[in-house]
Amino acid sequence: MTIVVNPHNPQEEQALLEFLDNMKYDYSREDETFVLSEAQQKEILERDKEYEAGETETYSIDEIIAHFKIKEK
Prior knowledge:
The protein is an all-alpha fold. Helices cover 49% and strands 0% of the residues.
C-alpha cells in the first residue's frame, strides 16, 4: 500500500514521523530536494528560450500516445 502525505510545515512532518515511529510502522521518505547540474540548468533555460521564441512544437497527450503507440490500460 502507498500513502502520500504532504505536511504543511516542519512541525506537522515531525509529528507524523514521531507517530509512525511510535507505532513501529515501516516507512520510507522521499527527499524532494535535489540539485541540477550546471549543464542541466543551462539545457532547461535554453529549451525555455526556444519555446518562448516559437522554435519548438508542443504536442497534446493524445498526439504523444499515438506517436509512441502507447496502449491505454
